[in-house]
Amino acid sequence: MYSVEHCERGVIDKLLTRYGFLHCTERVARLFFHNSEYKGNIDNLAVGDVVEFQESVDSRTGKSVAVMIKKIKNTAS
Q: What gap in Å lies between CA 49 and CA 31, rounded to an integer?
């Protein structure tokens, strides 16, 4: 289980079959995430996409992870 901290933005850095990594945009950090934490169709998520997420701590490992990941729509014209 996880202990949820706060909401942030990040950029998808790497996507694999069951998990991936993202870089935080507000600080220097690279976080692991499990694909089940993405709130949408994982097939629509790509490297370079901007997302909103919550940082949490995995109670088993004690490491920070990204949870509740949502893709941010590009509103630039």
A: 15
Q: Judging by beta carbons within 10 Å of its beta carbon (0-12, 13-18, 19+), is residue 24 exposed, middle or buried?
A: middle
The CATH number assigned to the domain with range 2-71 reads 2.40.50.140
Residue 4's identity, in one-letter code, is V
Distance in angstroms (rounded) separating the CA atoms of residues 24 and 18: 20
At 35, which amino acid appears?
A: N
The amino acid at 62: G
- The model's pLDDT over 12-21, given as tens digits with 9 standing for 90+, comes to 999 999 999 9
Sort strands 2-15 and 50-58 into parallel, antiparallel or unpaired: antiparallel
pTM value? 0.84
Distance CA 26, CA 29 (A): 9
